[in-house]
Amino acid sequence: MTPLLLVLECVAALDGSFRILGVQGGSGADFTSILAGSGGRAAARTRLRPLVRHLGEIAQGRRVILLRGDARSAPTRPADFFSVAQRFRAFCPMLDWVPDQQAAALRDSPPRASNVDDWISLLEPVASRMKVRLGGCTGIGVDESAPGAALLLSGYRERGRQRGASVVMPADEVGAVLLLGPVESVPRGSESLEQIQWLNPPLLDELLDNRWLVTSLVDGAPSGSLLAPWIPVGMGLRTADEVRRFSLEVAPSNSGAVAALTPSHRSVGTRSRVLDRTAVLALAARQPERRLLAEELASVLSPRLVHTYEEVTGYRGSQLDALLRTPDGRVTDQGDGTFQFSAPYPFIENTVGVLRQYVDTRPVRCRRTGRNHRATIQAAVLGDQVLSCWYDFKPQEFEDSSTRDVRVTPTMEPTPSETLGELQDALGPFVKELSSQFFARVQSRGDLRRLRDRWIMEQTA
Questions:
Q1: Residue 382 pairs with which residues in a beta bridge?
Q2: For residue 196, which phi and psi values (nearest 5 degrees)?
Q3: pTM
Q4: Most trustworthy range by pLDDT among 23-32, 141-150, 224-233, 320-329
Q5: How many angstroms separate the most distant Cα atoms in the chain?
Q6: 297 and 381 in one domain?
Q7: What is the pLDDT, as a whole number, of residue 29?
Q8: Looking at the structure, do residues 315 and 263 belong to the same domain, yes or no?
Q9: Residue 218 domain-assigned?
Q10: What is the count of structural domains for the chain?
Q11: What integer pLDDT is reported at residue 403 of this predicted model?
Q12: 3-state secondary structure of 159
């Protein structure tokens, strides 16, 4: 079985066990985090040798491409999206993060440019000693005009700090692709791309972008108990009474927090909102008295939404590019020099939240502040081997035992060496179960869609 590259977000609970809060694919392997978790470039290269060795083995002497696409843009929400939400307002579609995204778009600076240069500079010395031919690009596609199967690589370079260029490369010269960016950067339906060895398979990263589906793969397995308990909220997937019962079954943490609310899909947002019991009960009061019926599901599973001519012309380049990649999109000529674009929209993923139990953690002393804070542990895993792990101190969850709400800049620090060994033992069975279930149950995009639809159907009345 091909090993997978995963980044697991964990916490060390007060009882000494580890709980898993989230799982990402290669897109979670951030360059800055890897350096911070390893303690510098030299240590990072040592930790990443197994990754380079594995890439060389599956490439079999051909070139290995590091694909690091641009940062994912926020999903476009046409007026038709809110029309559907209004029709189903009785089931409480979760739209709380829409104002947050709009405010962030005005406040935050543009995303940092693709850091394929950083990865090439880090891995090239290791690859050259192992005689692995390495290259990097910011985009990949299929050149239909070239004779035979050829790949079009955008921003291609073979050394760090080298100016990227668009090149056409025969497909048989590429042995493996390491996907380090959003899965949207991979074109769909190309036989030339499907024949290449991917780490990870794009279908895996697409599955992991949906926070529901990891649970559906490991449900029933002993290692599945490592996942923190959670329930879906919004669109009638849980009733008001069920949310209230969930809040009462969870003991409040030392800080009074009971749960964390997160969007279901990573494209919608990655930040969690920490809730105390009063906030959870207020959330429960907004939920319906009955679940969504199975016969009502078809209208909200993937409705075809219309983007007007005025909306499309106002989209930014990255949003327009993501829109045009949507499968089964249609353009309708209005006859007056304008058009409408329509496509299926993942409405459920955008309107259902994940309400997860807030896990009280052992305090960690931060070198930067000299105080004890709450921190998550990020672990980069290849197969069942932990490559690197680091503390991630989040400013919205910083909390000192004597001073509450200490606000600092986000920081990352390497974990002690003994923590890496503990994680190796704790996470190994979970990663093995997740990998075996993925390869057994998801062979195509149709399998992935059926897995998603079956899980949603099980949540309806």
A1: 5, 385
A2: -85, 145
A3: 0.86
A4: 224-233
A5: 69
A6: no
A7: 75
A8: yes
A9: yes
A10: 2
A11: 35
A12: coil
Contacts 24+ apart (CB under 8 A), 407-410: 408/368, 408/369
Residues 445 and 307 in one domain: no
Specify the residue for token string 């939404």. Answer: 305
The token pair at 2 is 């091909």
- Beta-carbon contacts of 76 under 8 Å, excluding residues fewer than 6 positions away, are 307, 311, 315, 319, 322, 323
Domain that holds residue 446: 1-25+200-226+369-461
Q: Based on the fold, state whether residues 100 and 247 are members of the same structural domain.
A: yes
Domain boundary among 334, 357, 380: 357
Q: Are 280 and 274 in contact (CB under 8 A)?
A: no
CA distance 160 to 210: 33
Q: CA-CA distances (angstroms) from residue 340 to 74, 254, 318, 327, 336? A: 21, 53, 19, 16, 11
- For 401, other C-beta atoms within 10 Å of its C-beta total 10
Q: Is residue 362 in some structural domain?
A: no
Q: Which residue has the higher pLDDT, 316 or 309?
A: 309
CA distances from 19 to 16, 56, 432 (A): 10, 33, 16
In a domain, 34, yes or no: no
Q: Looking at the structure, tell me whether residues 245 and 334 fall in a common domain.
A: yes
> Any idea what the Cα angle at residue 110 is, between residues 109 and 114, rounded to 5°?
135
339 and 268 assigned to the same domain: yes
277-285 helix and 240-249 helix, angle to the nearest 10 degrees: 170
Which tens digits make up the pLDDT trace of 183-222? 766 776 666 677 788 888 888 988 999 999 999 999 888 9
The Cα 123–Cα 272 span in angstroms is 33
Residues 408 and 335 in one domain: no
| 318-362 tens-digit pLDDT | 778 778 778 888 999 988 889 999 999 989 999 999 999 998 888
453: left (phi over 0), alpha (psi -120 to 50) or beta: alpha
339 in the same domain as 263:
yes
End residue of a domain, out of 331, 357, 383:
357
Query: Could you tell me if residue 299 is inside a domain?
Result: yes
Residue carrying the six token digits 């496509």: 343
